[in-house]
Amino acid sequence: MRNLLRLFTIIFLFSCNKKEEPQEQVKNNSTEEYSAADTLVEIDEEIQDTLVSAFFGLDNALPSLILCNQQVGILDGMPVNFKFPLDASSLSETDFEVLDSLGNIHTPICVSLAPANENGENRTVLLLGEFGTAVTNPPVEVRVVGDLYTTETFSGESVCSAIINLNGITTTNVIPLADGPSLFFAQRIDGNLNECNSGSQTIQVAWNGGVTPYISDDTESDLFQYYVGYSDSSGVLIPHVPISIADIDDNDNFHQLCFSTSDKIVKISMMADTVEDPNHDPNLYSEIDVSSCSPLTIIEENIFEKGYNIYPNPFSDKIFVENQKKNKSTIREELRKRFANIM
């Protein structure tokens, strides 16, 4: 039962960019010229950044029969974290490959978005299987190799998203078993998604691994006092402590922080040694910017073409250009030709 509880605490685990697969970013500058090389690099970086991290949460600690309905022994647990919410209907264990340090490729036995699968969550997938050993042969890379799609955000989320195919993205940001959890996502929450009963604004945060209180006698409702939100006053960050915390005691990796200040919170931090992961490793000091959508900036008209969609980039002043009818390689080639003509 303890392993099962540890498992449900790890599933938890889970920003906002825009599209990833066919999506392309277009760059604007003061001379209204485009750099093909710079833009293609930015496109690749944005695509790869969609897969934020993987967290080697537990090594040979989870029961396969209970969690995967297969009798294959005791499994590893690895939360994989994305900036976009995922479409659960497109999720399959064959969407992922895990590479260990010896070069072996592993396919998960099963995968799950639960329990962090409420509206406004769905950004962490728990992979269950054999992915290596913590000391002698740890996992070093996670790849998306199937047609796993993102989905639109809900009303009340401050971040952007859209429906894109994540096939082909990878990450080598695999957090070792011995490391503690850290924040990987934050956004402003409003409307029906807001679970705070008081305050002027609510910030949702997500950890890359499941967390429970680390300090003896603390409960999850006590954790608000260790978070700090920051507003920006002419470039100076002003700290604000939440008045309470919501979305707790549900065994996932999301919290909602309730603030009394009306000053816009732009960053969240968490004190060290206040929460721990299912392996009982405490967190280090962690901080994360609060994500939100940016308004569209000016675009050259000759970038528009029938079938392209234009989206704001929540992380910069650049823009995503996507043609949903064509694949990524086709769009890259078209952009190379277009940029060559423009330049």
Give a quick summary of the entry.
The protein has 343 residues and is α+β, with helices and mostly antiparallel strands.
Provide the fold topology:
Blueprint: H1 2-11, E1 23-26, H2 36-49, E2 51-55, E3 58-63, H3 64-68, E4 74-82, E5 96-100, E6 105-106, E7 110-112, E8 124-129, E9 139-144, E10 170-171, E11 174-175, E12 183-189, E13 201-207, E14 212-213, E15 227-233, E16 236-240, E17 244-246, E18 254-259, E19 265-270, E20 275-276, E21 286-289, E22 308-312, E23 319-323, H4 328-342
Parallel strand pairs: 2-11
Antiparallel strand pairs: 1-23, 2-4, 3-4, 4-8, 5-6, 5-9, 7-8, 9-10, 12-13, 13-18, 14-20, 15-16, 15-19, 17-18, 19-21, 22-23
What does it look like?
It is built from four helices and 23 strands. Residues 1-36, 296-308, 312-319, 323-332 and 334-343 have low confidence and may be disordered. With 343 residues, the protein is of the alpha+beta class. The strands form six sheets. Strands 2, 3, 4, 7, 8 and 11 form a six-stranded mixed sheet that branches. It has one domain (2-289). Strand 15 (227-233) and strand 16 form a beta hairpin. The longest helix has 15 residues, at 328-342.
Largest sheet: 6 strands, mixed
Q: What would the average pLDDT be, to the nearest integer?
A: 81
Total DSSP helices: 4
The SSE order reads HEHEEHEEEEEEEEEEEEEEEEEEEEH
**Binned strand content:** 25-35%
The number of strands is 23
* Overall helicity: 10-25%
Question: How many structural units, i.e. domains?
Answer: 1
Rg result: 21 Å
Principal-axis shape: globular
In terms of per-residue confidence, which ranges show pLDDT below 50 for 5 or more consecutive residues?
A: 1-36, 296-308, 312-319, 323-332, 334-343
Kindly report how far apart the N and C termini lie. Answer: 64 Å
